[in-house]
Design goal:
Nucleotidyltransferase, domain 5, two-stranded parallel sheet, globular
């Protein structure tokens, strides 16, 4: 196993990063579930192939008496069509961003994002 300079095992570090990331995703999903008052969660895209994330989300939805769905593994690839479809919906709704003004906002809250095509 690879050892880091400080003597930590790289495998342990990677596992810890995964756990923290998935915990954050689960907490964000839990907040979204409550915020939009829904009772279903669908996990899709490349992350849907990860059993650990799926288990964490399933546990959270069970705690909230919500339904949990995961797309079949053969459809769990990262899907450029999903991104393209979102772009089409945004464009048709008049949402346009000049390339010079397009950047990542690291602390952008998901509940602060306006989605004009969603009623």
């Amino acid at each position: 196993m690879a050892k880091l300079k400080q003597g930590f095992d790289l495998t342990d570090l990677c596992f810890s990063l995964q756990e923290v990331s998935f915990s954050m995703l689960t907490e964000t999903t839990e907040r979204a579930l409550a915020h939009i008052e829904r009772d279903e969660v669908l996990l899709t895209g490349g992350v849907a192939a990860n059993a650990r994330l799926s288990n964490m989300l399933r546990t959270m939805t069970e705690d909230h008496n919500a339904k949990f769905f995961v797309v079949p593994r053969e459809y769990c690839g990262d899907c450029g069509a999903q991104i393209a479809w979102t772009g089409i919906l945004a464009y048709e709704s008049g949402v346009m961003t000049d390339v010079n003004n397009s950047f990542v906002i690291p602390r952008w809250r998901i509940d602060d994002v306006e989605i004009p095509w969603r009623h």
